[in-house]
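Tutorial handout. Part one gives the primary structure; part two gives the three-dimensional structure as tokens.
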Amino acid sequence: MSAVDRSDLRPEQVTAAFWDALYQRDWDLIAGFFDDESIYFDVPTGPSTAGKGPADIVARLRLGLEGIDGYDHHDRVVVVTDGEVVMTEHTEVWHFRTGETVTLPFVSVQWVRDGIITMWKDYWDYQTLVGNSPAWWQERLFTADLHWIHDATGHPLA
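Part two.
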């Protein structure tokens, strides 16, 4: 899917629409927030495990999120909006099919230019996720197709 024109929106409006799409797991809509140069990675695993471009960012998201039955999103607060940068603090509660739940606090930093999220970094505690998620889900992460991995080490915003 190509990016939807959101160039008339302020960066915080773009990110708010993005979060809505993410929590609906609307993969096609999610892809439209990125272009071929967009990068996403989780800070605990580092820029060497980034996704780049709409298809690979969605593949990266699906790896973790399709393995859970559902998740709740709480407490989204815009912490900082400075030009192209939007920082949000929020909590997700992940529900696994085998009954486990993980409450995972996040700080997300997204750079938005002309309605496109060009860089997205999520800060969260690795041990909170690994220490509370089921072994079958973790095994899925390590045995999945990781064709999407892009090493963003050295990127000026990484």
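Part three, for discussion. DSSP finds five helices and seven strands in the chain. The chain has one domain: 11-147.
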